[in-house]
Amino acid sequence: MIVDGTNKVLGRLASFAAKKALEGEEIVILNCENIVVSSSKDFLLSHYKQKQERGHPYHGPFFPKLPDRIVRRTIRGMLPYKKERGRKAFKKVKCYLGIPIDYQSRKPENVKLSDVTKYKTLDYLKLKEISEHLGKK
Length: 137
Known about the structure:
This protein is α/β, with parallel strands linked by helices. It has a single domain (2-134), classed as CATH 3.90.1180.10. The protein has 5 helices and 5 strands; from the N terminus they run βαββαααββα. Strands 1-2-4 form a 3-stranded parallel beta sheet. It has a two-stranded antiparallel sheet with strand order 3-5.
């Protein structure tokens, strides 16, 4: 299953992908930099910065800076990744920045997830902006 992440809410998309992966489906998420996280800008930037600074620089825990890896980490948190079933499901999840050449000819499926554009009063940030704040190179 191929899903376009543009303007989709991160938590809802991650729980959908985790559930499908546990059912045995391959999940490919495209345009991860355009996935949004809903909350106020100040809270989100401080929250993700605190997650990144947690732990020891050599021993972890390590939090990713790139948008596709943040999405993958969020999906991992919704899986029992320490058990065999969760590890197998996590290997079925692929996340990409933009649209790779392999998937340009294939059309993403229309998934009934909440799109941020229909909410006018919702505060949100795209993962691209969050990863730039974390120091993405």
